[in-house]
Amino acid sequence: MTLSRSTAQDLFWIALWFVLLILAGYGLRDPWPADEPRFASIARDMVATGDWLIPRAGGDLYQDKPPLHFWMIAAAYSLIGSLRWSFLLPSMLASLGTLFLVYDIAKRLHGREAGLLAAVTLACTLHFTITTRGAQIDATLIFFCTLALWAFLRHWLIAPSIGLVVLGGIAAGLGVMDKAVGFLTLLIWPLAWWLLRRPALFAKGSSEVRSPADWRFGLAALAAFALVLAAWLVPMLWHVANSGSPELVAYRDELLFQQTVTRYTAAWHHLRPWYYFLVEVVPVLWLPFSLLLWWLVPRWRADLSERRAATLLPLAWSVAVIVFFSLSPGKRGVYILPALPALALAAAAHLPELYRRVGVQRASLALAAVLVVPALLLVMGRWLGIDRIERVWAEIELGATWPVVSFAVVAALLWALANWRRPLLAWPLVLACLTVHWGLAIAPQINAERSASGFTQAMLAKLPPGRELGLVGYKEQFLLYLDREVTNFGHARWREGNAEAEDAARWLADDPKGRILLVPEHLLAPCFAGTTRTLAGESSDDLWWFVEGLPQRECIARGNPSKAIRYRP
Among 371, 265, 372, 375, which residue's Cα sits nearest to residue 327? Predict the structure, then answer.
């Protein structure tokens, strides 16, 4: 495909913006908890062991998520050879792909300006920016969901194509292999059948719907979806069925049922009221897009009255996603992120007109000031010797001083320049300034502490020579920096801490002179009350102790020796 000059220019500026907002600092930090170290270690072990079918964390089965995201990190690691340069790559490439898809479909439907503004609006939305700067599964999930919508919308609204329908089904299947909720993209089919097959509803806008919602196309999408899933599920299920392993059977059941149906209907953590997304997520994390809703809602009502399918289809799907997750008792802000690119598409037709409004431009200035003013007060207050601000600075590491001062000065200049020339640019410019300072200056500075690399290296230096090390209640980030074989007692057993401590007590008692445990302070009692303890350091908001000698007899008796897992990074 040959790109036009204007399209190529647009993509260049979008890519440049992406570099400023997302890629600044790439390769300058290690994986950070909570999830990044776990995903990185799983991917590294896939490459080391050659077992890509069953994910493992610290040698233990990891049944919380399907394997596609780990495969992508592992593939990058295989090619690059550096985990620091690999673990973020899938998320960043997926984010860039998402921006391109939003730009492309919005440009096709509403024109070049609308496409560019839709992509930039998405890139500058806080939740999208934050998510795509980390190695979370959600960034790649957003891409697969957006790819499926891109294909289906092109089929319905531009030109019918069996190839696009199949591509959309493949993308939906890959979304499920990335995270189970990827199937939600298929919800747009019943929505489209209901909307596009009602002549009365689209009497005034039928010309924009050039493809009927033919059930045969839906079957093609469903078939492609099923075949992609089968390519993973069939080998996995066959392997489990022929393994004779109760642990693998439990892995299968946990992955396919407990982490999907049960987690949705009877969630055991992240419990929130039904209005959580509408009250706590959208108003803050979706800035500045959430500010545009004041102007967008009346225009969407007009689109409904004018039967504009190009707006109503992505809008209806976005609402369906938010409603779907609102009905579950377990909620996290990232759950509804796949709806954000679709909302940008629903807004695209109106963005050129909205961004010319004085009110929107003033909102951009005001929002940017929320970042600039506190930074300026922090700097000026210190120069003026204000006690309260001096106490704030006392809590900031000395090395963080110059990035804060630099951001305050540069951001203030950018804000003033935007105020004078183009107020609309205030928020994008200040946000870019913030992310550049964070990625290039602040994140590398705090990396050793956040990643636990500093703690792990210091802990290993204190470890008595010749001892076999066991980890109790371990953090996945420890595994990334170990240079020796260790023993742990199962992945993510925080809900059964006492049982894990008892298993560790049994392991230590079997060879008290040759073994030593690393135990967080909150798991010391009661099993290790009478042991010899040496402080190893502080990490993850807890003190960690080396434990030697004989634990309590009651714990030894209850411990399960089969729970000990030998792991070599």
Answer: 265
Closest by Cα among 75, 37, 46, 41 to 58: 41
| Beta carbons of 310 and 349 less than 8 angstroms apart | yes
Place of tokens 């630099």: 406
Backbone angles phi, psi at 61, to 5 degrees: -60, 135
- DSSP structure class, residue 2: P
Three-class SS state of 537: strand
Q: Say which residue the tokens 């030894």 belong to.
A: 556
Give 48-59 pLDDT, tens digit per residue. Answer: 999 999 999 999
The type of residue at 108 is R
Phi, psi of 385 (to 5 degrees): 75, 30
Structural tokens at position 95 = 């984010």
Other CB atoms within 10 Å distance of the CB of residue 501: 29
Q: What is this structure's pTM?
A: 0.91
The distance from CA 488 to its chain's CA centroid, rounded to whole angstroms, is: 27
Residue ranges of domains in the chain? 88-354, 358-447, 453-567
Cβ atoms of residues 144 and 93 within 8 Å:
no
Residue 536 structure tokens = 């190893």
Q: Which two tokens stand for residue 78?
A: 């295989």
- CA-atom Rg of the chain in angstroms: 26
* pLDDT tens per residue across span 200-243: 444 444 444 444 456 788 899 999 999 999 999 999 999 999 99
